[in-house]
């Protein structure tokens, strides 16, 4: 095996196995730092050894075993005299395994563990995405619209607080789940989004491994909390988005917008399941249970996927849903997406005025400039539209999106 093949195998294993290795070690050793560092050492060992020895038949098992040995070596170096018995149990496997509790999936258990209420919400989500979600620091920083250095500091502070407060790695009980689920849903949503429009260098435009894993873990979360409306809403949102995956990228690798997609290529089974979940949540809202953020986003997607053609889209209903979402979550990105619906109902000039008010908040976000570019194009302002497209292309991290924006810019007179 040549070095290039080995490197590709390590990269693939990192994408597929990182979170599983970390989750297994954290459960065994009860320490997130040890788990992460030992996993990193195991992957470094793979980089050195796989070119010469070949890729093992089960890369995940090899990495888990190697990481376990690295963790034990660290414990041997750092253990005090009164820790010898515990160390021996770790080495020889005599310690009884920690019970799985109410969560039977290693990865989901670690997500609930990292989303500890003692940490600020943004710290919980950033730490969990790094430890479990398989996302790199640059990918997470783009998701939060912050600089990588700021994101690194946020993760470092979260880990330091875990140590300072002596927050243990502990299997969450059933009573722990409701106060942690909001952070868990935020993690799963961001993992799904990174798969939906991958931004990592060298990654394809869509990472199905991430979208599939996010959906799997959200299904497990719903089984744990079947009465939680936001869990059902997030699952519906993911399903309705995933249903359009095969139609979202052309054969040439270019993003296909919702208006141009072949709706016959959408996954009818996923759409039917997503619509059923949305109807259940609408019935709950009618009974007096107000919907949350994910439920409203799912409802918006349900309107889009109900239309047989883009011209049949009920934009007034979409705008009403965005108004409801804005009252719940007055974030600039919500206002940006709302402006797209405004453009369809009131015209691009009205929408452009709303988008321009978001300049200070979203100047570093590629979708802000892409939206402005499209509105300026529709108004016939080609020079300004070209400048906006240039800025969007500069900021976009997804290859399919970059190809689409470049074509639209080059079509301007």
TrEMBL record:
Domain RNA polymerase sigma-70 region intervals: 20-81
The UniProt record lists the keyword Transcription regulation: yes
Domain DUF6596: 180-280
Keywords attached to this entry: Sigma factor, Transcription, Transcription regulation
InterPro entries in the record: DUF6596 (IPR046531), RNA_pol_sigma70_r2 (IPR007627), RNA_pol_sigma70_r4_t2 (IPR013249), RNA_pol_sigma_r2 (IPR013325), RNA_pol_sigma_r3/r4-like (IPR013324), TPR-like_helical_dom_sf (IPR011990), WH-like_DNA-bd_sf (IPR036388)
Sequence ranges assigned to domain RNA polymerase sigma factor 70 region 4 type in this UniProt record: 111-162
GO terms for biological process, alphabetical: DNA-templated transcription initiation
Annotated TM spans: none
Pfam families xref list: DUF6596 (PF20239), Sigma70_r2 (PF04542), Sigma70_r4_2 (PF08281)
Gene Ontology terms, MF aspect: DNA binding; sigma factor activity
Homology family: Belongs to the sigma-70 factor family. ECF subfamily.
Protein name (database record): RNA polymerase sigma factor
Species this chain originates from: Bailinhaonella thermotolerans
């Amino acid at each position: 095996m040549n070095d290039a093949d080995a490197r590709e195998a390590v990269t693939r294993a990192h994408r597929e196995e990182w979170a599983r290795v970390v989750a297994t070690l954290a459960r065994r050793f009860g320490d997130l730092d040890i788990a992460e560092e030992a996993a990193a050492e195991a992957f470094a060992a793979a980089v050195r050894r796989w070119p010469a020895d070949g890729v093992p038949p089960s890369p995940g098992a090899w990495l888990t075993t190697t990481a376990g040995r690295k963790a034990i070596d660290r414990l041997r170096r750092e253990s005090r005299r009164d820790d010898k018995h515990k160390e021996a149990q770790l080495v020889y496997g005599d310690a009884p395994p920690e019970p799985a509790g109410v969560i039977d999936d290693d990865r989901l258990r670690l997500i609930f563990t990292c989303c500890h209420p003692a940490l600020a919400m943004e710290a919980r989500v950033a730490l969990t995405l790094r430890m479990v979600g398989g996302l790199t620091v640059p990918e997470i920083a783009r998701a939060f619209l912050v600089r990588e250095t700021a994101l690194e500091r946020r993760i470092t502070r979260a880990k330091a607080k875990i140590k300072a407060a002596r927050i243990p790695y502990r299997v969450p009980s059933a009573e722990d789940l409701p106060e942690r689920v909001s952070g868990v849903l935020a993690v799963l949503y961001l993992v799904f989004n990174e798969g939906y429009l991958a931004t990592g260098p060298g990654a394809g435009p869509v990472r199905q491994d991430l979208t599939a894993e996010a959906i799997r873990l959200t299904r497990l979360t719903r089984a744990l909390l079947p009465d939680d409306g936001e869990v059902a809403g997030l699952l519906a949102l993911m399903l309705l988005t995933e249903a359009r995956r095969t139609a979202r990228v052309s054969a040439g690798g270019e993003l296909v917008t919702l208006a141009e997609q072949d709706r016959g290529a959408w996954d009818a089974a996923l759409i039917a399941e997503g619509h059923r979940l949305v109807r259940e949540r609408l019935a709950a809202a009618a009974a007096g249970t107000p919907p949350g953020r994910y439920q409203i986003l799912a409802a918006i997607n349900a309107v889009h996927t109900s239309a047989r053609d883009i011209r049949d889209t009920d934009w007034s209903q979409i705008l009403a849903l965005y108004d409801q979402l804005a009252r719940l979550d007055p974030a600039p990105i919500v206002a940006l997406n709302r402006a797209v619906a405004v453009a369809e109902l009131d015209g691009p000039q009205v929408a452009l005025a709303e988008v321009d008010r978001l300049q200070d908040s979203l100047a570093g976000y590629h979708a802000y400039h892409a939206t402005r570019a499209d509105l300026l194009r529709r108004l016939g302002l080609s020079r300004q539209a070209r400048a906006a497209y240039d800025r969007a292309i500069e900021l976009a991290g997804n290859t399919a999106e970059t190809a689409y924006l470049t074509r639209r810019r080059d079509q301007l007179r």
